[in-house]
Specification:
single chain, Alpha-Beta Plaits, 2 domains, 5 helices
Length: 236
């Protein structure tokens, strides 16, 4: 049985790298005594796959991972309680907010997610950010230099920007931007240098992940079947 979890990554745990988080999950699943299916070969590994890597230092309200549960070794009636069991052994800042059962054949998270919404707190004031936003949205092309496979290339990133909003409160200005992840991801750091003057990031949080079906956008949990787990979901 393949289960997909939706989780947060907030607070101090945001400084853990993608590789460190993978180790956290392997260790937590083992401590929670949740039996996994392992790969074959000389060095069997638990079948766990992760979604798009989150930049180190960024927070997230919607991270995802898939794991293969060995349901022959786990009581079926207890499967819906897995989020509660795991929560007891996960570090502070990682909370499970959703779980579904995936079909046997499905497209991986890294291949299926087509865009991500980011909350990007910036140093500049709201008036200047609004002007920057208008420049970006009214531009036919936005040429930047970025590194790909160790080489610097020139790209037009305008097609990767789906939407931009600007939010202000008493102490900060936050850009809410939906950026495409296919055929290549546009990083928030690259997005902020899309137009002059470049903006300075203060804090970054991933808010949502989307899968474009052609007719609409859905969340990664929408591809699975509910297990009646009483969780607050963060989807489309």
């Amino acid at each position: 049985m393949i289960l997909r979890l939706q989780t947060t990554k907030v607070g101090k745990i945001r400084f853990a790298s993608h590789r460190d988080i993978a180790k956290v999950w392997e260790r937590s699943l083992r401590r929670a005594e949740i039996p996994l299916v392992y790969s074959e070969g000389f060095s069997p590994r638990p079948k766990i796959s992760f979604g798009l890597a989150l930049p180190t230092g960024a927070e997230s309200e919607c991270e995802y991972l898939d794991f293969h549960l060995d349901d022959q070794k786990y009581e079926t009636s207890n499967i819906s309680s897995i989020p509660q069991v795991l929560t007891k052994v996960l570090p502070e800042g990682i909370t499970i907010t959703g779980m579904v059962k995936m079909p046997k054949k499905y497209v991986s998270l890294q291949q299926s997610v087509t865009s991500t919404t980011w909350g990007i707190e910036v140093k500049e004031n709201t008036k200047d950010v609004q002007k920057w936003k208008e420049i970006v949205l009214t531009s036919d092309e936005l040429i930047i230099k970025r590194t790909r496979k160790g080489k610097q290339v020139v790209d037009d990133i305008r097609p990767y920007i789906r939407a931009i909003g600007v939010e202000e409160d008493v102490s900060k200005t936050t850009i809410k931007a939906e950026l495409k992840t296919q055929p290549r991801s546009l990083r928030p750091s690259e997005f902020l240098v899309a137009a002059k003057p470049n903006l300075t990031m203060v804090r970054l949080r991933r808010l949502k992940q989307f899968i474009d079906t052609g007719d609409s956008q859905i969340g990664p949990l929408d591809l699975g079947d509910s297990l009646d787990s009483d969780l607050e979901l963060c989807s489309s």
